[in-house]
């Protein structure tokens, strides 16, 4: 058996990234073409254990054959992936690109993702297999087999129909990680409604904004949820969200009883979940959907201040998610898969709900805080249920690293065989800590790159891959990714540039809700390719290193929040004249936000004002929007056209060269 030391080899070819959030004093500079110099070196290479290679569903030769096949015949590759799923009617055409970039996948097909996630398993040996293991923060648990989950989804699907929800209607789900959250997503999709899950940490205003944009007909929420030993109310926030302009679109609200909080229920509008489904049948027809019918909307922060409603559709999304999740994580019949992401984010959709269910595996879901009642809660859950695949975010790892290795050592983590990372670049330090202390120096750490917009894994290693801490390795078969300058010219190895995808993929977003022009911008910033908005580089071995965002989106603990959205929230305070927000490196959260504020005339800054400004931000956007510090200024650096130059503020904050200031206004 190889040891950890056998796994590690030194190589002169791998040079690592300057990671977001690293506090090592290194710096990157972008030249006029968009290329960057990388100064921090990472030279370790981790080789897969022989047993992992032997037992892998895809061996190295098969992976290379898949890459070759996908390169020679990309549509044939994805058609083969589609054949692994069930269809009511097969496609007439794999890809219609006549109206690019509005690509259409599996044209003419009829399907429903819920049929592949649930219905088809009822006819197989998976029927009585556990689909979901849920644990609440207080320690209560619930378990559902595929058959039990299928029946619960059917009952709620029938209830939704009784409330008048039909194909194409929008349903907003505002809940913490509960079984009913999963059931609501699946039930809405089953009847052809479009669900939009909103993270339970968002404020009433943020929820209202998303309801209004989607013109949702139904809101599903809970009375509350447990977090860090406290009960957080949700129904009260949901009620506040429905008080205001344009919320007349919501006809009904369904409330799950989680904490048994006394509630004000409005007759004719509000319904308790348990009462609503009590008399419903265990059987419900699955709506037959066109391939490009929308499945869900997921709002993601943009640089304009208004969240973007990313649309994913049934056919392409299910093909891409199923193929990439099952191959990257080498899914086997005995696996217990735990993705720690909240259902309010795309990772919670693809790797928490739809992907594992389509794969027929068993998933774990946890409601509460990872450090409650102490910092071993996650490791206790891994040991309790025998989790074999653990998929989490670097910010979670950095937070747990602060407590050292003592907590994981108190639990038996020997069931683990694969570890995964998602949401932001993972530093070599965090990668190595996860590998040694959680993976026992035996489990590969699979760092995946993808986005809300991509829907599925795009760049990722596999269990058989050579691994370099901090690198997402190479694009998966069927994905053509490159690092280019602003003109679209590939940059040399070792240089940084802009990450692009140069051909369509099945799980790609099919548009932005009511905003075709902004959708086109993804394909027009560098003509002919999808611009990911990330800075990256390739090393001499073709390994890709993600180095952070190229725009003004701040990645706080894996949550992407637009600077403009934070600035707009500060602007609602009576004392604020103008504001700029930047992201600065943070060891734990990856990035934290700092605000530079110009006050209205006659207002003097003090501690009370700072507290009030932070309270305003909380009220406007919710606790997900964390501001680390506020600095009051007499002026902000701007271009001659009046645009704030955030890069200048960031350079000043980090002690870096501010670069070309010829466009800076002097008055």
TrEMBL record:
Pfam families, per database record: ACAS_N (PF16177), AMP-binding (PF00501), AMP-binding_C (PF13193)
Keyword Flavoprotein: no
Entry's Gene Ontology BP terms: acetyl-CoA biosynthetic process from acetate
Protein name, entry field: Acetate--CoA ligase
SUPFAM superfamilies (alphabetical): Acetyl-CoA synthetase-like
EC number: 6.2.1.1
Organism field: Pseudodesulfovibrio piezophilus (strain DSM 21447 / JCM 15486 / C1TLV30)
NCBIfam families: Ac_CoA_lig_AcsA (TIGR02188), PRK00174.1 (NF001208)
Lineage top rank: taxon: Bacteria
Keyword tags: Acetylation, ATP-binding, Ligase, Nucleotide-binding
Name of the encoding gene: acsA
Region (Disordered): 1-28
A molecular function GO annotation: acetate-CoA ligase activity
AMP-binding enzyme C-terminal domain residues: 565-643
AMP-dependent synthetase/ligase domain residues: 125-513
Biased composition regions of type Polar residues, renumbered to the chain: 1-14
Stated family: Belongs to the ATP-dependent AMP-binding enzyme family.
Record has Acetylation as a keyword: yes
Domain Acetyl-coenzyme A synthetase N-terminal: 68-117
């Amino acid at each position: 058996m190889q040891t950890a030391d056998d796994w590690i080899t030194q190589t002169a070819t791998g040079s690592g990234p300057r990671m977001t959030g690293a506090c090592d004093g290194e710096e990157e500079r972008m030249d006029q073409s968009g290329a960057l110099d990388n100064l921090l070196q990472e030279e370790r290479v981790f080789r897969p254990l022989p047993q992992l290679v032997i037992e892998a569903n895809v061996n190295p030769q098969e992976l290379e054959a898949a890459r070759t096949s996908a390169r020679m015949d990309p549509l044939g590759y994805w058609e083969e992936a589609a054949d692994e799923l069930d269809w009511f009617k097969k496609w007439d055409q794999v890809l219609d690109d006549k109206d690019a970039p509005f690509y259409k996948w599996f044209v003419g097909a009829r399907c429903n993702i819920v049929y592949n996630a649930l219905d088809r398993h009822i006819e197989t040996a998976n029927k009585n297999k556990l689909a979901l293991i849920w644990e609440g923060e207080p320690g209560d648990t619930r378990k559902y087999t595929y058959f039990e989950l299928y029946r619960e989804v059917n009952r709620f699907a029938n209830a939704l129909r009784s409330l008048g929800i039909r194909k194409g209607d929008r349903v907003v789900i505002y809940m913490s990680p509960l079984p009913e959250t999963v059931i609501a997503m699946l039930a809405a999709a089953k009847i052809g409604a479009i669900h939009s899950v909103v993270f339970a940490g968002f404020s009433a205003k943020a929820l209202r904004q998303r309801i209004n944009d989607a013109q949702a007909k139904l809101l599903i929420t809970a009375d509350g949820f447990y977090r860090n030993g406290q009960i957080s109310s949700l129904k009260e926030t949901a009620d506040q969200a429905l008080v205001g302009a344009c919320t007349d679109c919501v006809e009904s609200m369904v409330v799950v009883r989680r904490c048994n909080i006394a509630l004000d229920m409005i007759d004719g509008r509000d319904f308790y979940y348990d009462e609503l489904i009590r008399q419903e049948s265990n059987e419900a027809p699955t709506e037959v959907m066109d391939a490009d019918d929308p499945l869900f909307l997921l709002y993601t922060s943009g640089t304009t201040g208004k969240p973007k409603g990313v649309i994913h559709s049934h056919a392409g999304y299910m093909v891409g998610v199923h193929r990439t999740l099952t191959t990257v994580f080498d899914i086997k019949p005995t696996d217990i898969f735990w993705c720690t992401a909240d259902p309010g984010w795309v990772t919670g959709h693809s790797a928490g709900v739809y992907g594992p269910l389509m794969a027929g595996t068993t998933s774990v879901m946890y409601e509460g805080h990872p450090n409650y009642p102490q910092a071993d809660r996650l490791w206790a859950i891994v040991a309790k249920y025998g989790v074999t695949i653990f998929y989490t975010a670097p910010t979670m790892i950095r937070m747990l690293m602060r407590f050292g290795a003592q907590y994981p050592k108190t639990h038996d983590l020997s069931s683990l065989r694969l570890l995964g990372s998602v949401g932001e670049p993972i530093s070599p330090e965090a990668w190595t800590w996860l590998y040694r202390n959680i993976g026992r120096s035996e489990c590969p750490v699979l760092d995946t790159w993808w986005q809300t917009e991509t829907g599925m894994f795009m760049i990722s290693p596999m269990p058989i891959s050579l691994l370099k801490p901090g690198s997402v390795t190479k694009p998966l078969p069927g994905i053509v990714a490159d690092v280019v300058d602003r003109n679209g010219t590939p940059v040399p190895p070792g240089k940084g540039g802009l990450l692009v995808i140069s051909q369509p993929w099945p799980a790609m977003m099919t548009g932005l809700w009511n905003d075709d022009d902004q959708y086109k911008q993804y394909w027009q910033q560098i003509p002919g390719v999808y611009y990911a908005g990330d800075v990256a580089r390739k090393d001499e071995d073709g390994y890709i290193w993600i180095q952070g965002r190229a725009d003004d989106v701040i990645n706080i603990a894996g949550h992407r929040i637009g600077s403009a959205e934070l600035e707009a929230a500060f602007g609602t305070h009576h004392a604020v004249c103008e504001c700029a927000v930047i992201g600065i490196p943070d060891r734990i959260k990856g990035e934290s936000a700092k605000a530079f504020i110009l006050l209205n005339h006659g207002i003097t800054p003090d501690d009370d004002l700072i507290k009030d400004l932070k309270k305003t931000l909380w009220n406007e956007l919710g606790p997900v929007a964390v501001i680390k510090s506020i600095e009051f200024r007499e002026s902000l650096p701007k271009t001659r056209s009046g645009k704030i130059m955030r890069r200048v503020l960031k350079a000043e904050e980090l002690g870096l060269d501010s670069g070309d200031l010829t466009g800076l206004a002097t008055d």
